[in-house]
Amino acid sequence: MNILRAPSRPDVDSTPFWEACQRRVLVGQRCGACGEWRWPPRAHCPSCHAREPVWEELAGTGTIVGAVTVRRSLDAAFAHLLPLPIIHVRVDGTDGAMVLTSNLLPGQWPQAEVGKRVAVRFARVRSDLILPQFTIDYASGDDGSSSTGSRRAPGR
């Protein structure tokens, strides 16, 4: 059983985000009137109250601003996922407004720390679902390693 999943029925405000993920593109929402970035998505702007949401493609990079590694499960259904690194990523290009909760790709959990640069990678977690996940962005020079590949999603 794969428990990683997005909402079974995205709401009207978040549907464009989930549709873009299925195309392996990371997008963010901003106000078409005042330009303010916002997350989570919503119909009206909290700054100017306009109802002009605009979706824009983002570079897919960011910085970890929060990290925790879950090492013990209270439910056996989750035990196969441990250790599970959960990260909060402040997405570049959104003036700090978009912070996604996600996880690192397998094998990178020991490197999950605040301030580490990451890049999006899209992972198919079910036959009908692709989710944004993250990988350490070695191309940023954070740890002196050489680049391991493109910052963009594979195939893009």
Largest sheet: 5 strands, antiparallel
Helix content bin: under 10%
Number of domains: 1
Determine Rg (CA atoms, Å).
16 Å
| Number of strand elements | 8
On the 0 to 100 scale, the average pLDDT is 85
The portion of residues forming beta strands comes to: 25-35%
Distance between the termini: 29 Å
- What's the order of the H and E elements? HEEEEEEEE
Helix count, DSSP H or I runs of 4 or more residues: 1
Short overview:
This protein is mostly beta strands and 156 residues long. The protein is 5% helix and 34% strand.
Q: What would your notes on this structure say?
A:
- The strands form 2 sheets. A 5-stranded antiparallel beta sheet has the order 6-5-4-7-8, with helices on one face.
- A hairpin with a 5-residue loop joins strand 1 and strand 2.
- By secondary structure, the chain is mainly β.
- The protein is built from 1 helix and 8 strands, in the order H-E-E-E-E-E-E-E-E.
Architecture blueprint of SSEs:
Elements: H1 15-22, E1 27-31, E2 37-38, E3 53-57, E4 61-70, E5 84-91, E6 99-103, E7 117-126, E8 129-136
